[in-house]
Amino acid sequence: MTAGGAASDGDAPHELESVEQRPLVVRRRAGRRVTTDPVPGSDPTPAPEPGRQGSSENDQRLRADVPPHWG
After folding, report:
1. How confident is the model over 2-13, as pLDDT tens digits?
2. Which string of DSSP letters, residue by residue, matches 18-46?
3. HSE-up of 36 (CA within 13 Å, CB side)?
4. How far is the C-alpha of 18 from the C-alpha of 60, rounded, in Å?
5. From CA 19, how far away is CA 22, in angstroms rounded?
6. Torsion, Cα of 63, 66, 69, 71 (10° steps)
């Protein structure tokens, strides 16, 4: 390069081509969650969770549960 920043004839444009091209390697991380052994004495086949109530079952109670000054 010259002092003005322009490329001169002495610069080698093939310098970029001399860099060895390697295939892109994608590494996938394993999961970060840890699995542990169950506590001794715990039930190996636990009972299923009870059914959850619907989203509309508690609406009336929530609407009625207002501060006293809302009167």
Report:
1. 555 555 555 555
2. TSPP------PPPP-----PPPTT--SSP
3. 3
4. 74
5. 9
6. 30
Q: Do 66 and 60 meet the contact criterion of CB atoms below 8 Å apart?
A: no
Give the torsion sign (CA, 4, 9, 13, 14): negative
Which token pair is 33?
């969650």
**Is 60's pLDDT higher than 60?**
yes
Phi, psi of 13 (to 5 degrees): -70, -15
Contacts of 13 (CB under 8 A, 6+ apart): 7
Give residue 51's identity as a one-letter amino acid code: G
